[in-house]
Design a protein that fits this description.
With 307 residues, the chain is α/β, with parallel strands linked by helices. The chain folds into 3 domains: 79 residues, Arc Repressor Mutant, subunit A, CATH 1.10.10; 103 residues, Periplasmic binding protein-like II (D-Maltodextrin-Binding Protein, domain 2); 106 residues, D-Maltodextrin-Binding Protein, domain 2. It is 48% helix and 20% strand. Strands 3, 4, 5, 6, 7, 8, 9, 10 and 11 form a 9-stranded mixed sheet that branches. It has a two-stranded antiparallel sheet with strand order 1-2. α2 packs across α3 and α3 crosses α4.
Length: 307
């Protein structure tokens, strides 16, 4: 029998608990009810009973068992994403309350893709914090796809990223920085010493740090070598997200090149950690901008960034 959405909502509001949200998010993330239960301090029988209660409230099966654990059904995935969003919002709220209790007069939570956190934020946030010493600031770094739901549900006051294909209702995207790909080397690289600008073929034959596949720069990196007709010689550094000081050290020791967004590289170029090769940009990107609401701490920070 079909049940109206309002009825399902009333059931959850009447009988749902925060522990249920933790359990749903945990099972979806860990793929195991036993691990999810241990993570939140529940016994497995209690967790099994709680999951059965939720499925009975909703009238649908949320997880399926398989050889290596449990996987969410389509309904389970929707509910797990909703649960995770609510928990994230709750954590942000408690962080804000804790900061206010410690004497902060406000709280700003900014999400940022790496090109924004290492560029625009590094350039502008310190002065903003100096001008507002009582403001508590939290930075959450991740991909646009990871952070956009948090901006949509209000967990983030601002998201600094490239323009989304669709901006969630109630938010707007404001462009702040144009961006392009640049090729950089550590000081002392042989290509920085030649009198004439190196050719694309000479650059392509160097040792390279490969950007992470999930980053926008990776597509530009791949196209550059396809156009040059060269298979890149890659530095043997395996890391999901190597810290920038490590990259700089490896580039210097192995005389390797890297390709990066100008918005990210410029901070390091200005401070002498990198030098840009005299070669045309391999490609451009959508601008870095802010996803914000009409008012609130994110809008206040946007006005500062727009000066």
């Amino acid at each position: 029998m079909d049940v109206a959405p309002a009825t399902l909502l009333a059931r959850l509001l009447a009988k749902g608990r925060l522990r249920h949200l933790q359990l749903l998010a945990g099972i979806a993330e860990l793929g195991s009810i036993q691990q999810a239960a241990g993570h939140i301090g529940m016994s497995q029988p209690a967790a099994t009973h709680a999951l059965a209660d939720i499925e009975e409230l909703l009238g649908v099966r949320l997880f399926e068992r398989h050889a290596r654990g449990m996987r969410p059904t389509h309904s389970g995935q929707l509910m797990a994403e909703c649960a995770q969003g609510m928990l994230t919002t709750l954590r942000a709220s408690t962080d804000s309350v804790a900061a206010l209790r410690r004497g902060a007069t406000g709280y700003l939570r900014v999400g940022a893709i790496p090109a924004a956190s290492g560029g625009l934020l590094a350039e502008r946030l310190p002065a903003y914090m100096t001008a507002r010493p009582e403001l508590q600031v939290e930075i959450v770094e991740g991909s646009r796809e990871q952070l956009l739901p948090q901006a949509a549900n209000g967990s983030l006051d601002m998201l600094l990223c490239r323009q989304p294909d669709a901006v969630p209702t109630g938010l707007q995207f404001v462009p702040l920085q144009q961006d392009e790909a640049v090729i950089v080397a550590a000081p002392g690289h042989p290509l920085l010493k030649v009198g004439d600008a190196p050719t694309p073929a000479e650059v392509a034959r160097q040792l390279w740090i490969e950007p992470r596949p999930e980053l926008a720069i990776h597509a530009v990196f791949k196209a550059f070598f396809e156009h040059a007709g060269v298979v890149p010689r890659l530095c043997r550094l395996a890391s999901a997200a190597p810290p920038m000081p490590l990259l700089i050290a490896v580039m210097q020791a192995q005389q390797a090149l890297a390709m990066a967004p100008l918005t990210l590289a410029n901070w390091y170029i200005q401070r002498g950690h990198f030098q840009r090769l005299s070669i045309a940009s391999p490609g451009s990107f959508q601008p870095i901008g802010a996803v914000v609401r009409d008012r609130g701490p994110g809008r206040d920070f946007l006005e500062w960034l727009s000066r």
